[in-house]
């Protein structure tokens, strides 16, 4: 396993991290989830990413149970706060001081740990003063409940403002968690340069475009039985527009010979492509089967040739989304409860 520094900090994380967004507690039940976590550990993965909103807390609980008994100092456990959780009443959402403090306490109970290595703002909260949010994060860090602070899907301006407050408060703001893969590159124009300047790393999710870059979805063919595109409870809605785009799926098929030439599967090629960007500290991969987890981990440390990188760009062509103005659109424009 390759290890990389997280932002301008002394913390190292595994270049491949294990995430349980649409698996634990929904697509995969506890026994299989534990098998997948064991496979991740066996493959050298030490970094685990989750969130309180995943399966309304169940994903954190399953991860906590699966990691019980492991040497805590040898792990990096990440979680997030923002979306409605629990009873989902009027204060069970956002980045208010109240919600942050209650959420970290509940997350630690479910994860069966005294602290998380990274606590992340799952989105930007347009309805809470940023000063309140950052002061609450500072309280969490100073209480020892989190070691570092990060965010997810923030714009360059939001990153700058948050980072400036973090410096004033003397807390380590080290990461951003966006979606990033060979088909979706909206962070490249501004987020990555801004992050390099500030000493912030990316911890990216969906490096294989939720399975689309594996090549298993064929143009003109229905999605394979048991795939994510057929699982309404496991994220089918997130990739509907991709698996119904035959031109895009046809372009993805052109990546197969490039992967073969590199001695990789198409999924490994996609993960290795993400890791060529030196602002990426870790690529979050999941898996509903242990063998998927093991295979994804084998992409760590692979350096793709210049010819392969150019071939990927040529194959995908104008199917790639590069519009930097889309950054931040995932943050809700209304209060959710």
TrEMBL record:
Q: Does the keyword Mitochondrion apply?
A: no
Instruction: List UniProt keywords, sorted A-Z.
Output: NADP, Oxidoreductase
Top-level division of the source organism's lineage: Bacteria
Q: Where is the NADP-dependent oxidoreductase domain?
A: 16-315
Gene3D superfamilies given in the database record: NADP-dependent oxidoreductase domain (3.20.20.100)
Q: Does the keyword Oxidoreductase apply?
A: yes
InterPro entries per the record? AKR, K_chnl_volt-dep_bsu_KCNAB-rel, NAD(P)_OxRdtase_dom_sf, NADP_OxRdtase_dom
Q: What does the sequence similarity comment in the record state about its family?
A: Belongs to the shaker potassium channel beta subunit family.
Entry protein name: Aldo/keto reductase family protein
Species assigned in the record: Microlunatus ginsengisoli
